[in-house]
Records
---
Amino acid sequence: RADTANLKEYGECYRRLGEGSTAVVMITRKLEGKGEKLYAIKQFRKRQRSESEKDYMKKLTSEFCISSTFSHPNVVETIDLVLDDRKRYSTVMEYCPGGDLFGCIMAECMTEREKACCFKQMIQGLAYLHSVGVAHRDIKPENLLLTADGTVKITDFGVSDVFRFAWESKGHKSRGLMGSEPYIAPEAFENKEYWGAVADVWSSGIVLYCLWMQGLIWHRAKKSDHAYACYLRQYSTQQFELLSKLPTGPRRLLYAILDPNPSTRISCQDILNDPWVQSIDVCVHGIGANNQPHHHI
């Protein structure tokens, strides 16, 4: 549009956070009164010669149009779509200074209380997305950001799918193999179409395992993967060795989440109603449900 804002309205770039195949992420700093406001900026790559202007703009705007409608404490706020001085598009988002959950997991410094809190916050965010008809399709620790006080926020809606519009009651299945292989649900490998929200639940289970065990349970949910094949054989008895070291609450829940049959897999709302999840104390701005300090390392 002619009135598209300029990136400079959100301050000056002072640090680069990372680079992916489709965009560069950086931080801008804007002076406001005696203080400053930080923003995360996702700057998209230039249009490739092989793609049309229409296809390029569709990719740019679809992610923004989906994510800019969200309003939930466990979902990153998308603020604006702007142009820089070189006419490249960028998405302006809230900045989460705590980094991503992957970094926290690798640091191996989280208590069980923190792990449970992060898991429940992720499920709260996912339940909200599914309630408004959106499947994320790339849930993994790298796409779960943390604020300074430990609030978990889902980010990166580049492969998200609107599976149900506001005027629909049932919705439609998703297509295409999206996300990172260790987190992809088995039905996405096996079928051309699958329910995106149900596949998100599976991914959340892999994240739960990563939180507790600081590693992946298998490389991909396919029968050709040895660990997954063992899981399928032992699923009915719930005696899978790699889950045996988990505490009773998360172990029992994981068998319901990692149900190989998508039609009987638990939903996000069901997860939130689980007794163990109900017992998890989720902090808000560093304060727990009992009004006691609840700090994340």
Note: The first helix runs from residue 53 to 67.
---
Amino acid sequence: MSSSRFVITVIGLDRVGIVAGITRVLAEHQVNIADIRQSIMDDLFTMIMLAEAKGENFDLAAFQQAMQAIGKELGVEVIVQHEDVFRFMHRI
């Protein structure tokens, strides 16, 4: 695999450390952020990222599990979808 891109969404009540926790897991799995949008609406935190993993040994299942675990720890919902799946699910 030369490159895999993922859409990562994070939603939950705002609190200190969400971005730090999410980006720590990205770094641990050698996943780069290609684009990021984040906003806070009242006390609701929302973030969507386009992220990319390069290399042949990337384990998507392990990455998804790690992202779900940090989401649970932070009290937010984290969804990781391969870019192709995300685009297919959201086409009109």
Note: Residues 8 and 79 are 6 Å apart (CA to CA).
---
Amino acid sequence: MSSLSERLDGRRVVIVAGSGGVGKTTTSAAIGLGLAAGGQRVCVITIDPAKRLADALGLEELGNEPRRVDPSRFSDHDIEVEGELWAMMLDAKRTFDDLIERLAPDAKTRDEILENRIYQELSSAVAGSQEFTAIAKLYDLDRDGGFDVLILDTPPSRNALDFLDAPDRLTNFFEGRALKVFLAPSGIAAKVVGRGTSVVFSVLRKVTGVDLLDDVSVFFRALSGIMDGFRERASGVKALLGDPATTFLIVSSPQHEPIEEAIHFAGKLREARHRIGALIVNRVDPGVADADPPDAEALAALEEELTAELGAPLARKVARTMADARLLADRDAASIAHLQDALGEAEALLVPQLDDDVHDLEGLTLIHRHLFASDPDRASMMRAAAGLA
């Protein structure tokens, strides 16, 4: 397998996908660090509200605009960042508002939409799904051209499937009959807000002081002024996802559920003809690196030898512990082989289970070293983690 650096050579957009809890955010940050260390200007975008990206980078917080990470933070870990590493945490509502500001033809239309009560409720609901706003932000940053590489840490893969469908769903919404009915100056729309509903709206206005009918009318009138912009945006987003410079990295752990989700998601990517750049498996039992693992006969011989030195009870415990460890390593090896076979990957990038969860720069740099090592060095690091070096 070629190195991760070679696999990402020439890529402008890297989308990191996988099920929840497999280390996507940390992997995204480590990849960003590796590319920035190589001299590129990189921005990592996360939607994770748990601040894992900020913590891993040693930052107090991240906002909705890219923030540069001080390269001196990595000097103590013997990593020289020749390029620039930037990071941001997506604010879905703010991103949706920014999109309206970009697409509105004039200040009056912009203010009518942003200040409209219908929009404020609707935008919170739509932005809360995060899929559309994430890809919209990615598109804007790519079009602005300020970065060599953009890395997007996506939602868990089941939601990431919605993320892939976002451009088509947006286009279908604007071309749908329901919206056309509301925007029509007469006919069914007029009947919808005709005599019967006008009485209801009148009562609501008297009770609440809110002219809901006026809000609905203003909202849809203003919306008609930005529909072409939304359609153009959806088309641009779809083109970006299919661009040869865009690649997907699938991240998993060796457990059954993440493995099956990774296989399912890879199938959906291939159906949509998206490119899979690499397969990364985190939290692997380092024992998979043992090319000559002990069999039952070897374990029995070890127990007999230890019995003479340590006594039978302790020897049995040591032998049992080694057998359990071998069982876990074999389980991980079988899961990885199943994943590679299903995805047609000759080899996955393996990152061993670390002693602690990655929550700081030290853990991040360890992940970075495993991901960007050469194949021989990565294998050596895995053997060292297993105590085989």
Note: Residues 4-168+230-290+333-385 form a domain with the Rossmann fold fold (CATH 3.40.50.300).
---
Amino acid sequence: MTTPSMNTVLEAVEMRVLPPDPAVMAAIGLSHTLNTAVADLIDNSLDATANRIVVRFMLRKGRPSSLLIIDNGFGMSEQAIDAAMTVGRRHHYDGSSLGHYGMGLKAASFSQAESLTVIARDQFDKTHHTAGRRWSRQGVQNFECEVLESSQCAEQLDLALESVDSKFGTMVRWDNVRTFPSGTNEDVVNEYLSRTVDSLRFHLGFVMHRLIKKRNMQISIDVYDADTGTAGAPRIVDAVDPFAYRRSGDGRYPMRFSVEVGPAAITATAHLWPARSQALEFRLDEDPVQRQGFYFYRNDRLLEAGGWKNIFTNGRRTQLARVELDIDTLPEVFDMNMEKSSVQPRPEFGHAVERAVSESGVSFSNYLNESEAVFRTGNVRSRKREAVVRPGSGFSPAVKRAIEEEYEDSAPRPPVQVRWKSISTGEFFEVDRAEQTLWLNERYRKILSTGRRSGMNDAPLLKASLYLLMEEVFRGSAFGSKAKDNVEIWQAILTDAAEDELARSSS
């Protein structure tokens, strides 16, 4: 009798096909955010050679109701749109495609919305036929897709394509978006749109920064009031390049390392940012300490930004170190998640990085040591800066973060708030030291918000400038004659300037 062993190879006796439960569709795309979901759909637009893309928030009765993504790509035929809407169908992607799994449209859409509509017109179809399909979240679990009436789809698509100046292209529409505000409170809606548009604009500019520059394409975001048929001013998505420093922190960088994984090799380009940079491209959207590390790109699309993948440890003194890696040529070494927001290298990549040496003989460990040296040298101050009153509510997180980084010490006074209200005297501002609040005149809000929808943290440049001008007024325990005289001077000049701006905007 053979002694049982955990090493015994188990024999198969038959094969059974086990189809998935349709309810599995409810779990698709759960790791998506609104930002990553929209970016995933824009990947499809770029694969369709679009160079004009509009992301549109639709308002009805004062609240966001739908989200549209409109592009001037080559569109889709009836057969192509059926293929795109088919769940689980493997698509053919060439080596330069941004799409990969064939699930992006469905996963991204149902991670955010209850209904997905796609309308397209194929530029290669001489009949100019318009095709439309719609999935509901319930329908997709039963694999039941609605075919929409062609002439109605054509009318809708014509209206949408006006925004990208094209007769051909695609419109993707989400309805019943779960993260949209459910009420009609104007302040809540304005704050949501302001925050969401800013966040989405940054995210798209960040992950698409190479593509925006290389393809000379334009992505814009707007808010469209369906009740009046009018769109607000478009917000253009600018490229946010995490390597766009004016000068390197060390003249020898950027430096190329050859990372040899088996018989193949990948080039890692190591960068050193200058110390104490306040550039958006360095700060990005969070603590720069978290943005050091590897930046993985596939076909010029940024997949993941920051972190050393447990090869090295994030440290405050190595925050200037960032490494570019294009992983198109070694797909077998890197696993990408379905949301295209994370990359997991195989273990051999870590070993290869540890062995990598540049042409000049610098190892990766040397590189990190040199980044620490640049950080230490650049952060030695010649004099200590005085304590200031911290900015409070009304200032955007980016402004607060910049002030806190530049002024390390806090004065023993409550934070300064900045608010808008009607000021009956018509003056530009009002100083309320009792409440530590700088009131701005609501009369000038629209012209000073540069056409964008107002919100609690609006007009960041104006508010930062006023903070630098008036912080001392709120810092002292007394409101002296010199401070009062300064306030009178500022009041007179700024009020006249605001009136001039108002007159120009209405002429």
Note: The mean pLDDT is 88.
